[in-house]
Design a protein that fits this description.
The protein has 466 residues and is of the alpha/beta class. It has helices spanning 15-27, 38-42, 45-48, 64-74, 89-97, 110-122, 147-159, 176-185, 204-212, 229-232, 248-260, 286-291, 297-303, 320-334, 344-352, 358-372, 385-389, 393-397, 402-411, 419-438, 443-450, 454-465, and strands at residues 7-11, 31-35, 52-56, 80-84, 102-105, 166-169, 194-198, 237-241, 262-264, 271-273, 277-282, 306-309, 341-342, 377-378. The strands form 4 sheets. Strands 2-1-3-4-5 form a 5-stranded parallel sheet, with helices on both faces. Helix 5 (89-97) runs parallel beside helix 7 (147-159) and helix 14 (320-334) packs across helix 16 (358-372).
Length: 466
């Protein structure tokens, strides 16, 4: 970086964050000005004349997004880095599309912030101003605040500015089509068609015609001309899901379209030119398919310009409660039933379950519960048996709660008297046995674990034998 001091302006209503950033950048030989709100910098911006701005989103008065929108119109050369503790897809994409150099999620690593700021200053001869795209209120609903999702939001924001090919990798049910649609709907192609096709679900003999169309009489049953998906999606986006299942001969034709932007319909003699953006996805290891001669290596290199890897739901467990709430509300509204929520026990089951079917499985379970659960508050007994059975939490919660209740109801009836005495004896016996196991047979330590005196544990052990 140049020996001339760069002037950084820090905007955040949190005084402690301003102080930490001030000290960090002063140590890195920056001239630092800090402000608690956007109005403070706007009223004298020409005099302040910053080289770079680091701004929070949520501040009193003008938000960081609105500040950036204003400054990018009047001072497009000044890089602006947005930071926030409240990140979602729409905010991230909106920030990047309006010209943010980078988007940081709190809490952040100070060294990483310094690195990003220095890169922005060194590259400030570039024009960071992008043509703003109109926001849409119909963005695909991608939910999550986990670190892995923050990275994906930023990727969508950056990729959507370009026409580069994208490969989305992820297991079944992780939301590959949703990500593809988000890229499309945040791009300049948003008003053109988005067409999704599962290449693994269409018979091989029909896939060519489905993608490229056919001329009348080109094969048995071709009674009329058919426009293929490539033509239908021209100027828009074609999403090819499960491309790992695509036959080799169709892969060859796809490669030519990607290279030349033209193709022939099946049975056709006229070359058709298209400007279709291709986004592909698969749950398979394409490199392994290449090694097994089941996938073209040159096609892999072509579609793999930018890769997005989606995490399994079990690897973003912090997002499960929010996803659950969203799906429960969605289906309760859709089926006109009273809104239902999970009780604490059911929530813990949901978070601890590994969801092998990922978001799609969670979605289906929420749909089932919204319709079938008889109570407004969903309990463990209401959950599908496979989720409860495979959950480690069952041994902690069900043994203590549900099984105890079942045992009481089976052992006693309405004529039973003083049942608490019998239950207390059993309860204390289990407590003593467990504490002795934990203390490896040491009664004094067992008493400490239980919070009893040594005489108490000795007396209860004696009474239980009696």
């Amino acid at each position: 970086m140049s020996s001339i001091k760069k002037h950084i302006c820090i905007l955040d209503d949190d005084k402690s964050i301003r102080w930490v950033l001030e000290k960090a950048f002063q140590k890195e030989n920056f001239m630092v000005s800090s402000f608690p709100d956007a109005e403070s910098i706007l009223k004298d911006f020409d005099t302040i004349n910053p080289d770079i701005i680091l701004s929070d989103i949520r501040m009193p008065g003008i938000s960081g997004i609105d500040l950036m929108d204003k400054l990018k119109r009047e001072y497009p050369h000044v890089p602006i880095i947005i930071m926030t503790a409240f990140s979602d897809l729409e905010t991230t994409v909106s920030s990047l599309q309006k010209g943010a150099y980078e988007y940081l999620t709190k809490p952040f690593d100070i060294d990483n912030v310094i690195k990003i700021v220095k890169n922005a200053c060194e590259n400030n001869n570039l024009n960071y101003k992008k043509t703003p795209l109109n926001n849409t209120n119909e963005l695909p609903k991608i939910i999550g605040f986990s670190e892995s999702m923050q990275f994906i939001y930023k990727s969508i924001g950056k990729i959507s500015r370009t026409n580069v090919e994208v490969l989305i990798l992820g297991d079944t049910g992780t939301g590959k089509e949703l990500i593809a649609k988000a890229i499309h709907e945040n791009s300049a192609r948003k008003h053109e068609p988005f067409i999704a096709i599962n290449t693994g679900a269409i018979p091989t003999e029909l896939l060519e015609s489905e993608l490229f169309g056919h001329e009348k009489g080109s094969f048995t049953g071709a009674y009329s001309q058919r426009i293929g998906r490539f033509e239908q999606a021209s100027e828009g986006t074609l999403f090819l899901d499960e491309i790992g299942d695509m036959p080799m001969d169709v892969q060859t034709r796809l490669l030519r379209v990607l290279q030349d932007g033209e193709f022939f319909r099946v049975g056709g003699a006229k070359s058709i030119k298209v400007q279709t953006r291709i986004i592909t996805a698969t749950h398979k290891n394409l490199q392994k398919l290449v090694d097994e001669n089941l996938f073209r290596e040159d096609l892999l290199h072509r579609i793999n310009a930018i890769k997005i890897e989606l995490p399994n739901l079990k690897d973003r467990k912090t997002d499960i409660p929010e996803l659950t709430n969203y799906f429960m509300k969605k289906y309760c509204d859709e089926y006109s039933v009273k809104y239902k929520i999970l009780d604490e026990g059911a929530k813990k089951i949901f978070v601890k379950y590994d969801w092998p079917g990922n978001i799609r499985e969670l979605q289906n379970v929420c749909k089932y519960l919204s319709i079938m659960s008889p109570n407004d508050k969903i309990k463990i007994n209401d959950l599908p048996e496979n989720i409860v059975k495979e959950n480690d939490y069952l041994n902690e919660e069900k043994n203590w709660g549900v099984i105890l209740e079942s045992w009481i109801l089976n052992r006693f009836d309405g004529n039973s008297k003083n049942i608490s005495k019998e239950i207390d004896n059993i309860y204390h016996s289990i407590l003593i046995k467990s504490s002795l196991k934990l203390s490896k047979g040491n009664k004094t330590e067992a008493a400490k674990i239980l919070g009893w005196g040594r005489n108490t544990i000795a007396n209860k052990m004696k009474s239980s034998k009696d």
